[in-house]
Amino acid sequence: MSKKILLSLALAATACVAQAQTLRIGLAEDPDVLDPTLARSFVSRIVFSSLCDKLVDIDEKLNIVPQLATSYQWSADNKALTMKLRSGVTFHDGEKFDAAAVKFNIDRHKNLAGSNRRGELAPVTTVDVIDELTVKINLSAPFSPLLTVLADRAGMMVSPKAAQAAPTNFGTKPVCSGPFKFTERVAQDRIVLERYAGYWDKANIHFDKVVFQPIVDATVRLANLRSGQLDFIERVAPSDIASIKADKKLAFSRITELGYQGITINTGKSDQAQKNPLGRDPRVREAFELSLDRAGIVQVAMDGEATPGNQWVPPANSFYARNVPIPKRDIARAKQLLKEAGVPNPSFTLMTPTTSDAQRVAQVVQAMAKEAGFDVKIQSTEFATSLNLADKGQYDAYVLAWSGRADPDGNLFSFYGCKQPLNYSGECRPQWDELLNRSRNTLDTAGRIKVFATLAAEAEKVKPVIYLFHRNWLWAYNKKITGMRTVPDGLVRPQGLKM
After folding, report:
1. Which end of the chain, C or N, has fewer beta carbons within 10 A?
2. Which of 179, 210, 176, 206 is nearest to 192 (CA)?
């Protein structure tokens, strides 16, 4: 064989390799079920960004932008939303996306057993198919967060045919309409997606495959990035930022999250709430909060890469309740409260996911609370398992991060509403439900701010959640990757990403 032919073959092989590119993303946890209706973890939303398109999305400034819906219009009384749908869209099984599919998905979100979207869509009464590409969503009352709700999992569309064929185990082989289709999943090891040739926006997709690898240790994630085993990692350890910036092969991005890092307390989820003083006495919870220095936690556990906070939104957010400021650490007052409660040395178990940042937070909290007399035992638990234990009320207190939503209702309703799916504290108060519903039905921003101020004052007395800070989303990736968008929801959108 001549040298010329050999050279031609080599060039052809190189071209094939260049065209077939895989994006390898390191995740901080293994996602829970890959079903938009049932999922409840932040990390699953990262996977869904490549797998399942939504009716609408948000941009860097939290504006609503089109995705599967191209436009929308509110009715005069704000009790109905009519959406025009994108034509020519198909699901990964070849089935057509249309208004009937939207109706099926919203009904499924509302009615499927175990749905974590039910609370998000509670005001939705019915969905009307106007024509093939027009759908009307009817509400029991005006619902200000609806578009931001539809910009997340409640707006994700799955194939009705596939969902009906596997009503109980759809999440093991999900079929959506996003840029990549599901290929395989090996628990705690990898999730593999392949490019969907029929994707409506395929011109903006430049990878043939996406492989997600859960690696809970941030140091190991970074080592894999540096060695070339990964191309992109999320939730970088703040202590590694300086070395990443000094590495000429790596790029770095950050943005403040929409959510929070906090400690949820079992105050009524199960009988276990009454078995430890933290759960049964608000004075003990107040003492626990007063034993903590939020700024100190941010500095030690997060290397300063977070904003201290005591509510479901950051202090700079327009919906922050300024009538409930961040309390200062007060060890003397904490000890006095414990004395009044008759438990000078209370003991409880603090459950924490095995992720690096959660572990650091738990350890700093443990040391600070000890100064006030608390004996805090740390229980490190795999993330999906910790969610299940919280759901069953099999915990005392829980270090839980919430990635946040563009509207504060998304940080509140499912956590504080009676019998809502993410109400891990078990706190159920009718007056809180009334406030939550009033905030949803009020379209006036000033009116909503007043409602949130009232709710913040109420929650401050009970303290089912002790909010600590609002993280910066930190990403590191191969410097050859371009098109990275820093959207405050922390998700990795594959559209526009190139190597």
Report:
1. N
2. 210
Which helix (DSSP H) or strand (DSSP E) does residue 475 occupy? Answer: strand 465-478
Both structure tokens of 423: 């109400």
pLDDT at residue 4 above 80?
Answer: no
Same domain, 199 and 335: no
pTM of this prediction? 0.84
Q: Which element (helix H / strand E) includes 360? A: helix 356-370
| 175 contacts 158 by C-beta, under 8 angstroms | yes
Query: How far is the C-alpha of 465 from the C-alpha of 361, rounded, in Å?
Result: 15
Residue 416 token pair: 């504080």
Q: Which among 300, 243, 261 has a CA at the least distance from the CA of 472? A: 261
**Do 229 and 306 belong together in one domain?**
no
Structure tokens at 8: 């031609």
| Same domain for 314 and 225 | no
The pLDDT tens digits for 215-256 are 999 999 999 999 999 999 999 999 999 999 999 999 999 998
pLDDT digits (tens, 9 = 90+) for 339-360: 999 999 999 999 999 988 899 9
The three-class DSSP label of residue 493 is coil
